[in-house]
Amino acid sequence: MEPLTLAFDVGPLYGHRTGVAVATEHLLAGLGSRPEITVLPYLLSARATPRPGHVRLPLPATAALRLWARIDHPRVDRWLPGAEVLHGTNYVAPPSRLPQVISVYDCWFLMHPEAASPAVNRSAAVLRRAVAAGAHLHVSSAATAAVAGELLATDRITVIHLGPPALGPAPAPAQYVDPRVSDLSGSRLILAIGTIERRKDIPSLVTAFGMIAADLADVRLVIAGAPGDDQARVEAAITALPSPIRSRVHLLGAVTPATKAALLEASCVLAYPSRDEGFGFPILEAQQVGLAVVARPSGSIPEVGGSGVQLACDQTTSSLADALAAVLTDDVLRASVIRSGRMNLTRFSWDRCVNEMLDLYRQMK
After folding, report:
1. Please, are residues 28 and 10 in contact by the beta-carbon 8 Å criterion?
2. Which of these, 160, 233, 254, 257, has the minimum number of CB atoms within 10 Å of its CB?
């Protein structure tokens, strides 16, 4: 196999761990195990301390993105000697004369620029310039491909599904007891995982829980995820619940990987009310541990979750509540969703993802 040298953005591995970081970590590990490819990991950050072998581009990220949103300067080729292809793993690739692959996971920020931060909108401008200059997009679902193709006016798009995120073993309760979760034993848990972003639409999940909670007295809602741009609306939705039901909603904020694994093991349903989704790692995490998934029919969710997800009939909050109630009250239905979820997992692997990414890089070379 002809050797290849790849410049690869490892910036997502620094700072708060997101789904993009999970994808970047797994892909980097897979590429690093292939003898036919040499990876040059780079990051754009003036503050992070680069790990051994990682090249920090000597540019302040904010200033660089402001420039790159308007002009193709400074180019980064001088700091990536020998690279033949460049992969921007987090929506952005810096100006370069190299062939470029850019990973786009969802298009929410392109569809709703009014709701995005100035920094995100600058990144969108950089992405648009790169695509106009010939960059090729990698997307993790056909649903994202369709939207990205329309919004970015390109057919240079390749769909490559990601693999399932690695889950460590859940610790025994005594090892992860936390004041926020120690009183949940003996209850059936609806679990939501992910940063509190608007596209995740956690407020509607809180409202849907309020619709069914009176009839399901042993059910609690646990929301685990770092605060984001929808934190205030989530807190307001919780406050609007009647007091007895409000006490059964637990807004945990960010949790450790061990606590997340324990919550997945202890829960009855994973709720995924997203209005848009590029892939949806929590779906595959839940299916790995035999947890039923209830979700909206949004973005990539039907594509990735397959028959291992109980989909709401439509986007309304009442339909989400109905789907949750059905899975919580029908043991046969819940068992069927769990069984289908385990079968669905066989469609995804990081080995296949890496093979397909290598094919794409070679096409770009």
Report:
1. yes
2. 257
Q: At what angle do helices 19-32 and 350-364 cross, to 10 degrees?
A: 80
Among the CATH numbers 3.40.50.970, 3.40.50.2000, 2.60.120.10, 3.40.50.300, which is that of 173-347?
3.40.50.2000
Q: Would you say 60 and 48 are in contact if contact means Cβ atoms under 8 Å apart?
A: no
Instruction: Split the chain (365 residues) into runs of 10 and give each run's mean pLDDT.
Output: 92 90 96 95 89 92 94 94 97 96 95 91 96 97 96 98 84 57 79 94 98 96 94 97 96 88 91 94 95 96 96 97 98 97 96 97 93
Structural contact between residues 282 and 260, judged by C-beta atoms closer than 8 angstroms: no
Helices (H), the chain: 19-32, 61-68, 108-111, 118-132, 142-151, 173-176, 202-212, 231-239, 243-246, 257-266, 281-288, 301-305, 317-329, 331-344, 350-364
Q: Strand, helix or coil at 140? A: coil
C-alpha to C-alpha distance for 260 and 130, rounded to whole angstroms: 37
According to the model, what pLDDT value does residue 187 have?
87
Q: Which CATH architecture has domain 4-163+349-364?
A: 3-Layer(aba) Sandwich (3.40)
Question: To which residue do tokens 């040499």 refer?
Answer: 38
Predicted pLDDT of residue 171: 60
**Ranges for all domains in the chain classified under CATH 3.40.50.2000:** 4-163+349-364, 173-347
Among 249, 199, 204, which residue's Cα sits nearest to residue 229? 199
- Measured distance between the N- and C-terminal CA atoms of the chain, rounded to whole angstroms: 14
Alpha carbons 233 and 251: distance in angstroms, whole number: 12
Q: Are 276 and 151 in contact (CB under 8 A)?
A: no
**Is residue 166 classed as helix, strand or coil in its secondary structure?**
coil
Count other Cβ atoms within 10 Å, centred on residue 190.
27
Measure the CA angle with vertex 255, ends 253 and 261; round to 5°: 135
Tokens matching residue 360: 């794409």
